[in-house]
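Deviations from the work plan: none for this task. Representative record:
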Amino acid sequence: MKNFDVIIIGGGHNGLVAASYLAKKNKKVLLIEKNDNIGGLSEYAESLNCISPIIKKELNINIVSTNHTNHIISLEDNQNHTIVEYNNENLSFLKTNADEHNQQNFLSIINKYKLFSKTLGSFMFNQPPRVKSGNRADIMQLISMGWKIRKLGKRNMRELLRVIGLNIADDLEDNLSNDNLIGLLSHEAVLGTNLGPRSPGSILTLLYKQAINNNIFNLKKIEVIDYINQLEDCCNNHSVEIIKSSKVKKILTQNNCVTGIELQNGDIFESYCVMSNADPKTTYLNLLGAEILDTDFIRRVKNFRNKGNVAKLELVFEKEININGIDKKMYGKFIYAPNIKYIEHAFNANKYNKYSEKPCLEFYINKNILSANVYYVPYVANSHHQENEIIKNCKNVLSKFISDMNVIKENLITPNQMEKKYNISGGHWHHGDLEIDQLLMMRPFYGSAQYSTPINGLYLCSAGTHPGGGLTGINGINAAKKVIGDLK
Amino acid sequence: MNSLEISYKKPLLETPFHKRTSELCYSNNWYRWAGYKVVNEYSSTELEYTAIRNTAGLFDITPMHKYEIKGEDAKKFINKLITKDITNIQPNQVSYGIWCNEDGMVIDDGTIFCFNENHYRIFCAERNLNWLSDTATGFNVSIEDISTSIAALAFQGPLSCKILNLLKVDNIENLKPFHFDNYDLENHNITISRTGFSGDLGYEIWCDPSEAIDVWDSLFKFNKDYKVLAAGMNALEMVRIEAGFIQPNVDFMSAEQALRPNRMRNPYELGLGWLVSLDKDYFTGKTALTKIRQKSLEKKLVGLDIEGDKPAVGSVLYDGQKKEIGIVTAAMWSPTLKSNIAIGYVNKDFMKIGSTVFAEIYHPEELEYKKIWANCKVVKKQFFNPQRRYNIPADI
C-alpha cells in the first residue's frame, strides 16, 4: 500500500497533461492506465492542427508542425471536386466549379466564423465560472465573457447571437448555392457530433470545434504520436509513477471523501485526491458507484448524451492509391459529404440507431493505406452492427473515386469497440455531445462542472469536462490547477 | 389485467370493491385518485366521520401505489431512499418514512413493510416508480409496481379490532401498532397491518382482488350491533387533519412536482425532523440536509387552535401588526374535539408552541362572506391521539 498526493485514472492525453503539471508542482503522482500503451483514444486522432499555447507554456512542449497537409479536397460524384489550399491562415481555391460569387461568399463566411470562434475561444482556456457563486472572480469572468461578445460591435454581435442557435444548413443556404461548398462546411460542423446539418446548434458546434482547433478545417499538422511521446517523457522527467496494463476497479470513499483506489488485481493505493480521466458516466456509475450519489445526480449522469457515431476505417490497398483525376501533389484531407441532402439522409439512420447506408467520409491517404472517419455509425447499446456491411458501404463510396479497389486488409473500429477498448461509455470522441446544454459551466452536467464532483477529493479531467475533446489538454491543465488550488 | 388498454377506453378505473361502493354511493360523488375512482362521500360525510370515530369506518384505498422491492441489496436500497435508518427493521414490522431529493426537499412519504431481509413493500400516495428505479441504480434489487394486484381497505375506528375478533381473526388484538401479519378471515388468506390514516385504533387489510368483495362483505357482518359504515375521502380528510397527518400536494408540494423551487419543503419545516438520521451512512439529500440542519428554520408547519367555530380554510395568517406570516393548508371544525383546528405554515418568529397568530377567515354565509379576525394558538399538529391507538392487546 502506497500513498500519493494525487492518483490519476486513465493515461489518455488529458491524464498525461494533468500528471505532468501536478508533478511539476512537486506533487507525488500515480497514473494508472488500463491498456498496454498510454495515449488512449488519441491514437485514432487523425488530425491535430496545433498544440494549445497553454500546454506549450506550462509543460514546455513544442513540436514542429509539418506542412504536408494543406489541401482539403471535397469530393463529388460527378468528379467536379473542389480543392482548397490552406496556406498561412489564408484560404484559396485551387480547383472548383463554384462561380466567383460563391467563392467570395464562402471565404467571407469562413472569416465570419473565424471571428466568432475567436470570441468563443477566449472562453475555452479557463475554468468556466460558476454562475451563482457570488464569487468576485466568477462575476468578473462572466462580465468579461459578456464584454468579449459586446466588443464584436453591434452588427457582429447581433449576427453571432442570431446564428449561435441556428443550424448550419440555414446559414449556408442563405449565402451559397454551390452544393459542394455547402457540404464541405456542413461536414466540419457535424463530424463527431450527434447532429445533422439541419439540427439546431450545428453552427455552435462548428464554432466550438474551430475555437478548440484554432482552424475551421482541422488539418494534420502535428503527428499525434510525437505529442503523446513528449507528454510521456514529460511525466517521466517529473517522476510520475505510471502503471500500465492495470484496470482500476473502484474509487474508494469514506463519508463522501475519497480515500484511494483499488485495482482489479486487488492492489490498493491511498490518496485523498483522485482525478478521473475516464468519461463521466464510467467514473460515476462504474468506478465510484451510484450507491453513494444522490438520485437527481444519477439522473443527470444517465441523461448525459454520449452516444458516439464515428467509426474508424483503415484499408490497406495492394498498390499505391490513386484518386481519379487528382494530382498526387494535391492530396490532403479528403472529404466526401457532397451536399446537405446526402448528409441529412446519412443522419436519418443515426436517429434510429442504424448505420448510414450511404456514409459520409473523411480520409487521408498514405501511399497504400487509407484511413477514414466514417459517419454515421452510431453506438448501439447491448448490440452490434454488421461491420462487413459498413465496410462494403464505405468501399462503394470510395470506388467512385478509386479505380483500383484491390484491398488486402481492412479494419473497422466502431464506437462500440472504442467503448470496450478505451472504457469510454458510448464510444464518443468528446465523451459527450458538444451541445449548448453540455458546454462551459454545464459540462458535463449540473453538480459536476468545473472539474469537481459531489465527492470531496474526486476530480474529473477527461474530455467530458470543459472544453471537451480534441486533444487540447486544457481539461487536464485546468483540472490540475483546480486540484492545486484546493490542496492549498 | 391490461390496465393500459382499460384506462385508455375508460378514463377512470374501478377498484375491485366498486360493485359494493357504487351500490352504497347514494350521492354518486366520486373522487379521482391515481386513475381510479373512489367514493368522496357516500351519503353524509358527517355520518361517515362519526362512524370512524365511534364504531368503525371502511375506506377503499386500493389506488394507493404499491411497490415490491426484492433483492439482496433491498435493505441498502431503502436506506438510500428514505431519510430514516431502517437497519434494525424486523420482519413483519412497518416503518413510516419520507424520501427527499438532492436538495433535501421532501418528495413523498410512505409506509415500508418488511417481509424479510431481502423483501420489502412500499406504499405511498403518489407515483414514485421513476424515482425508485433511478435510486436503485447500482443496487442488486428489483422494483415492481404491484399496485393493481392488491386490493386494499382501511378499517379504522375504536371497534375495528372488536369486529375483526368477532370475525374470528385469530390473535388480532395482539398485533402491535406498525406491525403486520397474515391472517385468516372467513377462509380468505389476507394480510392485516395495524396502520392507518385516522390517528386511532385501526387496520389496513390487503387481499387478492378476487377476494375483495367477500372481505368487504364480512366486515359488515355484525352491523346489527356495531354500525360499520363505508366512508369516503371527505371523511378521511377530516380524520387525518385531526390526527395531524400531512399529505403531499396539500400540505406541501412534492419536490418532484413543484415547479417553483421555493415551494419545496424540507423535513424540518414539515415537523418531520425525527424521520431524518443524519448519522446514517448515506441517503439521497444527506449532504443538503446536513447543511439545512445547521441553519435555523424560516418557516414550519404547525397545528393551530383557532377561536370560534368557523373553519379557517385557505386563510392567510398574520401577526398582531397585520403583517402576513403564514398560510393555512388544511382546516376544519373538529366534532370530536369540539374545537376549530387547522394545519398551516408560520414563519420563524411564531414556530414555538403557544405563540399567538391571527387568521383572516372568510366564512361563506348564504352568498356573502363573513370576515372573521380570529385569534389562533400554535399547538402540536397531533390534535387527536387517544391511548387506545397504542394499547396491546387492542381493545376488543
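Chain B has three domains: 3-62+150-231, 64-141+248-294, 296-379.
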